[in-house]
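Write out the 3D structure for:
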Amino acid sequence: MGEDVEALRAELAETQARLKEAQGELARLVRLAEADLQRRRPGEQSSVVASSVRRPAAKEVAARIARFAHLYREAAAATPDRAPVVPEATMLGWLETSGLFDRQYYLACNDDVANAGADPTQHYYNHGSEEGRLPSTL
């Protein structure tokens, strides 16, 4: 039984180290996105996204967004009060202005979301990215 406890402790330490690394990366990305949002004019694409995402295929974009959303949730789960690192509204605002997500495309391709009257950005961020739904035609 002692070996099991030690193995669990080692696994916990490894998980905590990965979470700390993910939190640092997420914080860095959020700082860049927030700074970009403050500089950008309405309707203008995010320069952070434009410079870092060189028009990959839609599936690759979807995978990146899903990974980002997963890191965000993982970082929130690791905090003592399970609070998000930044408000979800900030994350949704970033996704809306990133040029990676197309509301009309998402609704046209996902009748269930359109028929439910759900906000497409919020649905994609909370469910669609993990379900492998495409965010746009990129």
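The CA atoms of residues 30 and 86 lie 8 Å apart.
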